[in-house]
Design goal:
heterodimer, A: about 775 residues, Aldehyde Oxidoreductase, domain 4, Aldehyde Oxidoreductase, domain 3, 3 domains, seven-stranded mixed β-sheet, 18 helices, B: Uridine Diphospho-n-acetylenolpyruvylglucosamine Reductase, domain 2, Enolase-like, domain 1, binds flavin-adenine dinucleotide
Chain lengths: ~775, ~290
Amino acid sequence: MKKGLRIVGRSVARAEALAKATGRARYTSDFKRGDMLVAKALWAKYPHALIKSIDTSAAEQLAGVAAVMTAKDLPGRNGYGIMVPDKPVIADGKTRYEGDPVALVAAVTEEIATKALELIKVEYEVLTAYDDPREAMKDDAVLIHPNHPAADKGNLLTVVKLDRGDVEKAFREADIVIENYYETPMVEHCYLEPDICIAEPDDLTGGLHLICAQQAVYATKRCLAPVFNLPHHKVRVSSPIVGGGFGGKEDSSLDVAAVAGVLALKTKKTVCFELTREEVFRTTGKRHATYIKHRMAATKEGKITAVDVETVLNKGAYTSMGGLREPAHAVTMRTAAYAAGVYAVASAKARSYSVFTNTPYSCAFRGFGVPQAIFAVECQIDELARRLNMDPIELRRKNILRDGDHTIYGQVMKESRGLGLEECMDKVRDSIGWDKPLAQSAGPVKRGRGFAVFMYGTGIPLLFEGASCFAVLNNDATLNVNIASTEMGQGVMTVMAQMAAEALGLNYEDVLVSFSDTGRAPDSGPTVGSRSTVMVGNAVLDACRQLKDRLLAFAAKPFKADPRDLAIEGGKIFVVGKPETAESLAALIAKAYASQVPLAATGVWYPPQPSFRAEDGQGEPMHAYAFGAHAIEISVDTETGVITVDRSVFACDVGKAINPAAVEGQMEGGAAQGIGWGVMEEQVMENGVMQNAAFHNYMIPTIKDLPDLESIIVEHPNELGPFGSKGIGEPPIIPAAPAIRNAVWDALGIKMNAIPLTARTVLAEIQKNGKA
Amino acid sequence: MKETLYFGPKTLAEALALLDKYRDKAVIVNGGTDIVEKLAHRAVDPEAIVYIQGIPELKTIKEEAGFVSIGGTATYKDVLASPLCGKFAGLIQSVREIGSAPIRVVGTPAGNIGTAVPAADCNVALMALGARIVLAKLGGERVVETKDMFVAYCKTQLEPGELIKEIRIPVTDAGTASAFAKLAKRKAQDIAQVSASVRLTAEGGVCKDIAIALGAVGPTAVRVPSLEKALVGKSIDACLAEVKKAVPPELRLRNPRNKQYKEAVVGVLIGRVLKAAYEELAGGGK
Ligand SMILES: Cc1cc2nc3c(=O)[nH]c(=O)nc-3n(C[C@H](O)[C@H](O)[C@H](O)COP(=O)(O)OP(=O)(O)OC[C@H]3O[C@@H](n4cnc5c(N)ncnc54)[C@H](O)[C@@H]3O)c2cc1C
């Protein structure tokens, strides 16, 4: 008889909650020691310039300075990057953005290191700096990477192409065509913990230990070993708990680790490199700004027949999360793949251009380009509904992908992997009272309601997919699970322990998950792409299954029972239906060890092999999708342009909520971040120089800017996910911005296609439209 | 690296003696919410820090001789808790808008004046209320009107050796009310894009006397005499119609990115505070 779940599906207390709540949890900066050297970087004075000369002699002579390094002093390759090693550790002859280090210093105190930077003299020849990829794409633009493998395409790094069906014909025959131009801003992740790395030379091995807040310890090892000129096995990378990452700490961690590492090797001392908040703003990766031309063809009955989409992405100064082989561009690829959003559209053409500029490099940021693509689609369909005078939810219902439908990249949608979008839409519709008109007041405040939906493929196929872990059963019937994933507040320690305890019949408290240390765990893959619960969870289940099988096989003899009739629960093993046979699991484990039964295992899981053809963007890259629907109510003060978000009702299909409280946490956090993206966040650049590099002028929402964030969990199980789960880390950020934009249109009758919808831009539109 | 001297005087006399000794080499630290950041980054690098929060005699809020006076170390939290300050709706509304609860526990109106940024919220309310600032130094005191206090961007009349001893707000009768409003990019913890405050005396629906102050529309907070003169003697409805689209000549906006927006909303904001003050008067005149 199949029993109900004991631990999975419960909101058990987070494993690290008490330590965090009491301030005892140790983050990387808590591991600083008095005898460490402090590193500082001399950043590029000009974002795009040739370096004519560098004179470090005065800095070297300053008492207390242990090392001054320029590009000529590096131990190994002067280049790294997740996909392409085109970002220099220290700028060599050229700067490409204001976050390029020109020289590095390690000194006994921060004051001395700062003083030393002031003593370094650099001569530059200034070049035109580009903020806008549309400018940098022009034929006569100055080349940002003259020696790049992609330099024959100018500043264009890559184009992702997607073609399906006969797009020209579909547009010719369309009853209605919606065409718009959309813009979404470059934004910073704004994680609480600034980037930091402590690099310790290991005198026993001749290697290096990097203690570094990050999302991908194995990627750091792979990317930086050549920089240190060390074999991979001598580079150990570990990350204490992380104060937020949102995708950024897959890349910025490389920046700080490269600097701390080369200085540690040079000085043979432990070196700490920690960014200030201003440095985080100016130097680390960002969300790609996008410029999207979107055409949508439809019949007068409201069936979408084709999309034709051109997206220009601001790549910034370096490749980061992108490759030279076209499909390997995680973000660029997704802007093309999601160009029709959640809809079944027979014909599609998409071109996504990723272009170098002199802004900070664009990298992974919660959603890998899907939020940008969905923003455009969800605005388009709203306009289609207006033009056809149809209810926007009913119009969506007509078009959503269903079992057996193909996405525009050829993926077949499967009910068995969980297709819960329609249920999300209905729950949100009921909960917000969609059919009841909003109450309006007589004054200058106008109210509006907007709706948007999303889908998001779990994981990061084509880059690195699959996961491994170690699991060890101890003599007291407790379990250690070692994974290389990062705990950054999302609760990976907790859900892995829940799943392992459920699978092995242990108590939740009897499982301890160790995380993010290449010295302790095999590669679980990076902690990005909403992948860990599914990929790493499956690997943990694989290990637990092996351990359980071995234990039960061993127990069969003393219990005189078939292993299939044995069960483990709450630290006891017994014959199913005969509680009197129960014996202590610990005693059995002790006997098993004595009898040469191995009770350590490596768990592994890979999803179905993904595909995505470079020629036409067709394939099956994803194995399962999370879905969601979001309705937002706003008020607009028509005299000041100020938008207030009054209500947010959000439903997500997560397959199975392993820990519902953690899922709600992701949904609320995503909604908040999405609202910020929609109405206030923006990295303002002028000629490569950030104009708002502090939290007093770079706005993110406070609790007062948010309504009560209502979350509804929907569960359509994924047959390949552990307990049916799908990834829900990133996608909750996606629909808030288009929902707000659609609500503004509803409130004012004004169409706005560029976010953020700040008071300034909204008021300007109101005045332009004479609606004040 | 040179050491900075730190003093924590317990009396006003002690503080004044220290300020007299170190003159422009001393920096006063009150709640510290503005100045500590500058000290930490060495944007300000004094010889001596004089921390004044330990002076009990400066903490009091009292009423005497027709004024409510707020001591030089009283915090925003003290102001909000004070029934005497509660009479000035404009003051209370401005203080509620400052930063967040933790900032209001330590930040002070005197520090708002000392920093003198054009967007300082409390200063704008004080200016409309016609507050006077008492500056003390060794062997003397002088009184400066808030509207004359700010001489340039982040620059006040305060001279080396001087300290803000108290802020005196004239007590008004039932025919006068005040209000403050701020427009910012978000709803908490943000600097004003534009702020406005009024003190209105009205009778029979007619404006008898009005003071209007604006923040974040030039290098300092300003009074708006051009509008004030134009409004006296008019009905409140006429005043509201007149201010709504007003772009007073006292605005000194340079940044083209801000100019258009600030000009578009400044009249709206003046209208709102005017209306709020009038509604308070009309709503029972208590
Ligand atoms: C997160 C944050 C949010 C904020 N939000 C707002 C806001 O919304 N609105 C706003 O207006 N401000 C805001 N501020 C700024 C600040 O809190 C206020 O200006 C506050 O009034 C400063 O008071 P303080 O006592 O902390 O001043 P301090 O930092 O101690 O001093 C400020 C200056 O005044 C001088 N000074 C202080 N007291 C005296 C005195 N008695 N005599 C002579 N000189 C003196 C000091 O020497 C210094 O130059 C914010 C600050 C922070 C950090």
